[in-house]
């Protein structure tokens, strides 16, 4: 159980981040939500999490693609709660194109949010974790943090960087009660992946579900999508006593993708 712990999850107003927040809240953790979306819908999510799990849930908006904003976000959490016990770096964006055609601004945005934000939030959270001699940092990387695919230079570079940063964070804090690990999902049917399915359907002139099966067949031997709830369950495990000596590792949930 994570009673009296405070968990900060970036990009948690929908998809994977929200599922992680729900799973950690179910274990008694107080939650800091972060992300973009309709204000009324976010408030509904916040209230439901509180009522369903009898925990405290706050929402803090922040543009994590900006270094100072990302650091200020963690400082706000500390000012509000006095705690950052669990940090889940999940926020991310995607763009696909050949390297020679890849827009510079899109490259910069992806690196800023998918990689640099992980560095900035971690750097701000670590001193408090070090002081309390307990902390769990969980970086939501990707199968693309371990292997590559065409047309995803920025995303692959960022996620490989996240895996490397995970290892350095783990080494620098080994033995101090702080662990840092990366979860590397395969295809999860999030809005990011849904857009790729739509593009594939248009390219092959087929329906959405056929395109979804084609997408899975390219990479994921199980031919099944990973669910956000499964990723949330992995996050709970990484916060458990069973994972106390698990640090600097990658946990693949990819239906066999990276086994090939």
Overall description:
Strands 3-2-1-4-5-6-7 form a seven-stranded parallel β-sheet, with helices on both faces. Strand 5 (135-140), helix 5 and strand 6 form a beta-alpha-beta unit. The mean pLDDT is 97. The protein has two domains: 6-187 and 227-259, NAD(P)-binding Rossmann-like Domain (Rossmann fold, 3-Layer(aba) Sandwich), CATH 3.40.50; 189-225, no CATH class. It starts with 5 loop residues before the first strand and ends in a 7-residue tail after the last strand. The protein is 49% helix and 13% strand. Helix 1 crosses helix 8 (228-238), helix 3 runs parallel beside helix 4 and helix 6 (191-204) crosses helix 7. The protein has helices at 15-26, 39-53, 67-81, 104-132, 153-172, 191-204, 208-219, 228-238, and strands at residues 6-9, 30-33, 57-59, 86-89, 135-140, 178-185, 250-253. It has 260 residues and is α/β, with parallel strands linked by helices.
How would you summarize what this structure contains?
This protein folds into two domains: 215 residues, Rossmann fold (3-Layer(aba) Sandwich), CATH 3.40.50; 37 residues, no CATH class. The protein is 49% helix and 13% strand.
What spatial form do the alpha-carbon principal axes imply? globular
- CATH class category label of the largest domain: Alpha Beta
Strand-residue proportion: 5-15%
CATH superfamily of the largest domain: NAD(P)-binding Rossmann-like Domain
Integer count of domains: 2
Helix content: 40-55%
Write down the Rg: 18 Å
Low-confidence stretches: none
CATH topology of the largest domain: Rossmann fold
Strand arrangement within the widest β-sheet reads 3-2-1-4-5-6-7
Instruction: Give the averaged pLDDT, no decimals.
Output: 97
Q: Give helix and strand order, one letter per element, not per position.
A: EHEHEHEHEHEHHHE
The CA-CA distance between the termini, in Å, is 36 Å
Helix count? 8
How would you classify the helix and strand content by structural class? alpha/beta
- Major beta sheet, specifics? 7 strands, parallel
- Give the CATH architecture of the largest domain: 3-Layer(aba) Sandwich
Tell me the total number of β-strands. 7
């Amino acid at each position: 159980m994570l009673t009296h712990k405070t968990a900060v999850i970036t990009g948690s107003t929908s998809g994977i981040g929200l599922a992680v927040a729900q799973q950690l809240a179910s274990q008694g953790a107080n939650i800091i939500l972060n992300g973009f979306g309709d204000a009324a819908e976010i408030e509904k999510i916040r209230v439901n999490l509180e009522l369903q799990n009898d925990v405290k849930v706050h929402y803090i908006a922040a543009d994590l693609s900006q270094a100072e904003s990302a650091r200020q976000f963690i400082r706000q959490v500390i000012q509000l709660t006095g705690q950052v016990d669990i940090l889940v770096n999940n926020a991310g964006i995607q763009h696909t194109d050949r390297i020679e055609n890849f827009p510079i601004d899109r490259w910069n945005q992806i690196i800023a949010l998918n990689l640099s934000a992980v560095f900035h939030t971690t750097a701000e959270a670590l001193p408090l974790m070090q002081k309390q001699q307990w902390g769990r940092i969980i970086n939501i990387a990707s199968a693309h943090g371990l292997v590559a695919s065409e047309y995803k230079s920025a995303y692959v570079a960022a996620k490989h960087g996240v895996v490397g940063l995970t290892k350095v964070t783990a080494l620098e804090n080994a033995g101090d009660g702080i662990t840092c690990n990366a979860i590397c999902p395969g295809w999860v049917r999030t809005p990011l992946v849904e857009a790729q399915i739509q593009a594939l359907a248009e390219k092959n002139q087929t329906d959405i579900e056929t395109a979804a099966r084609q997408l899975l067949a390219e990479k994921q031997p199980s031919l099944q999508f990973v669910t956000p709830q499964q990723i949330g369950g992995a996050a709970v495990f990484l916060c458990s006593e069973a994972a106390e000596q698990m640090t600097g590792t990658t946990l693949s949930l990819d239906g066999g993708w990276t086994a090939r």
